């Protein structure tokens, strides 16, 4: 079973570029365009790893990080700028 990766990035081109590059490595990838959608996908799919933009409309990366750590401490989480 492939590792599940959640990418939360509001910039479409960056989101799709990350997906393309990381899909080649065999990850099962879920894409979110903002923090709210990212948290929904996190709860639905329980990804093994999260890449998250810090500056986004609605919930920003720090808010997403806090909720993820509260719900599933120890989840690998990388904040991108």
Polypeptide structure, described:
With 81 residues, the chain is α/β, with parallel strands linked by helices. Helix content is 42%, strand content 23%. It is globular and about 30 Å long. The relative contact order is 0.23.
Distance between the termini: 30 Å
Number of helices: 3
* Helix-strand sequence: EHEHEHE
Category by helix and strand content: alpha/beta
List the helices and strands and how they pair.
Blueprint lengths: L3 E5 L3 H12 L4 E5 L2 H11 L3 E5 L7 H11 L5 E4 L1
Parallel strand pairs: 1-2, 1-3, 3-4
Concise description?
This protein is of the alpha/beta class and 81 residues long. 42% of the residues lie in helices and 23% in strands. It has a four-stranded parallel beta sheet, sandwiched between helices.
Structural features:
81 residues; alpha/beta; four-stranded parallel β-sheet; 3 helices; 4 strands; globular
């Amino acid at each position: 079973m492939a590792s599940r990766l959640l990418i939360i990035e509001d910039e479409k081109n960056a989101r799709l570029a990350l997906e393309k590059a990381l899909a080649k490595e065999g990850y099962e990838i879920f894409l979110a365009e903002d923090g709210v959608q990212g948290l929904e996908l996190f709860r639905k799919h329980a990804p093994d790893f999260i890449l998250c933009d810090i500056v986004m409309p609605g919930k920003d990366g720090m808010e997403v990080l806090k909720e993820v750590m509260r719900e599933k401490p120890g989840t690998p989480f990388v904040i991108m700028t």
